[in-house]
Amino acid sequence: MKVPFRWPLLAATAIGLAIALWAIGRAGLGDIMAAAGRLGIGGFLLLIACSFAVLGLLGAAWLTAMPDASFRRLPLFTWARTTREGASDLLPFSQIGGIVVGAWTLIGRGLPATRVYASIIVDLTTEMAAQLLFTLFGLWMLGAILLDADAMRSLRTLALIGAGVAVAVTIAFALLQVPALRFLAFLARRMLPRAEVAVDAVVAELTRYYRVRRAILASFFFNLLAWAGSAASAWLTLRLMGEHQTILHIIALESLIFVLRSAAFVVPGAIGIQEAGYILLGPIFGIGPEAAVALSLVKRARDIAIGVPALLIWQMGGVRSGLRKSA
Fold first, then answer.
1. How far apart are CA 163 and CA 98, in angstroms?
2. How close are the terminal C-alpha atoms of the chain, in Å?
3. pLDDT grade, residue 307 (50/70/90)?
4. Separation CA 93–CA 73 (nearest Å)
5. 69 CB neighbour count, 10 Å cutoff
6. Are 219 and 134 in contact, with CB atoms under 8 Å apart?
7. Which of 16-20, 212-216, 265-269 has the highest mean pLDDT?
8. Burial class, 130, CB count within 10 angstroms (exposed 0-12 / middle 13-18 / buried 19+)
9. What pTM was computed for the model?
10. Domain parsing of the chain, residue ranges
């Protein structure tokens, strides 16, 4: 797979690793390991099970974004979303590379490229809209907590700026979908040379999809459930570590962490950004730095446990397909 913009990616990765090491040093490696150890193997397996449930919701959101797709294809879309998340978390170029890998997963199973890329645009739109609602809830909770804290005025200002950026990005993506699609097609050709994307045909298909309002609402609903489910799994993980914050506080914290990860899309896996976010925001919601960083590292271990096998299977499937075509 060709990776464009290699040196900026390497620089971003190096900076992220440096920030991650700073966060681990500030929290204390021994304390982090002790907090993670309280989770145990059983707790970690439970976290993985919760993650598969969230992937099922994300698969349903992508499936319903393609109005004429049968629900019998839910396992395929869930698998495509799994490879998409694995590539986003573990491979260079972060979320965008994951989108391309997820698309090729469906195309490789015989779905027309025009339908796949149109459904991706719809799914991304509804996912961003759901994340916006989720983020606004997190900012509202943050504002309520900091309302009487004069020392936190700068953080409140930063939160308002974050809300404005989230709204602006969502509106921009909704209005600039054709340029976004052309950029996605460019990346597909660079990263997957076999991918052929006829942008005009995808735009026509996209226009047809947007006429089916129930499909848009269903995709939004499943994406919103997935955001909530992901935050709930973080709350459960913290509970198993011995932390007892309310689920609403953890949902608010996770919504803000998701915003930071989205903003740091050029850094593979948001390395360092996620850890720094937990260090800075965790205490506001009553979570000590060691538990906050432990949660971040446990989530990364989960991503590896799910993502590496998924990408290996995906790669093996591509090799087998190539061998069959060359036979």
1. 25
2. 22
3. very high
4. 28
5. 19
6. no
7. 212-216
8. buried
9. 0.81
10. 6-319
Angle between helices 289-326 and 273-281 (to 10 degrees): 150
Q: Which amino acid is at 251?
A: I
In this model, does residue 48 exceed pLDDT 50? yes
Q: What does the CA dihedral 114, 119, 120, 123 come to, rounded to 10 degrees?
A: 170
CA distances from 141 to 229, 246, 288 (A): 18, 12, 19
